[in-house]
Design brief:
6 helices; alpha/beta; 5-stranded parallel β-sheet; 144 residues; Rossmann fold
Length: 144
């Protein structure tokens, strides 16, 4: 079944929803987990080109990824965590190929068709540009 699951996280409350689902699936399949967050602020997008130091936000992002990683490891999972920078969909797809995952599991925020059209949707882009199966888990709307 699944041997390696990539979980792109946006470090929002939606993360708990996808992590809860994937804990069960990964336990059932004994899958390895890779956590990925793509920082996409100005510093993150220009980190290498302008030889910048990571922003305080990127440092916090890395710390949150490490907390998720430690929590999963405590529960017996084999898990890696990676902080990337740039365009989220591009980085997710590149990392999926790099780690050779066989499932990408990600939360969706449910903006709706109009919201996705205006705001764009990383999940929409990822699922249309990959041959890897994508599991989309809808996060509850704010306030629910």
């Amino acid at each position: 079944m699944y041997r390696h699951i990539l979980i792109p996280l946006d470090l929002s409350p939606a993360d708990s929803v996808v992590l809860e689902h994937i804990r069960k699936l990964a336990k059932f399949t004994s899958a390895r987990i890779t956590l990925l967050h793509v920082a996409d602020g100005h510093v993150a997008r220009n980190l290498l080109n302008l030889d910048l130091a990571p922003s305080p936000e990127m440092v916090e992002d890395q710390q949150q990824l490490e907390r998720y990683q430690a929590d999963l490891r405590t529960d017996g999972f084999t898990v890696d965590a990676h902080l990337a920078s740039g365009e989220p969909a591009d980085e997710i797809l590149a990392h999926a190929g790099k780690v050779q995952c066989d499932l990408i599991a990600m939360a969706t925020h449910g903006h709706g068709m109009l919201g996705d059209l205006i705001l764009g949707s990383v999940a929409h882009t990822v699922r249309h540009r990959t041959e890897i199966p994508v599991l989309l888990i809808k996060a509850p709307k704010k306030g629910k």
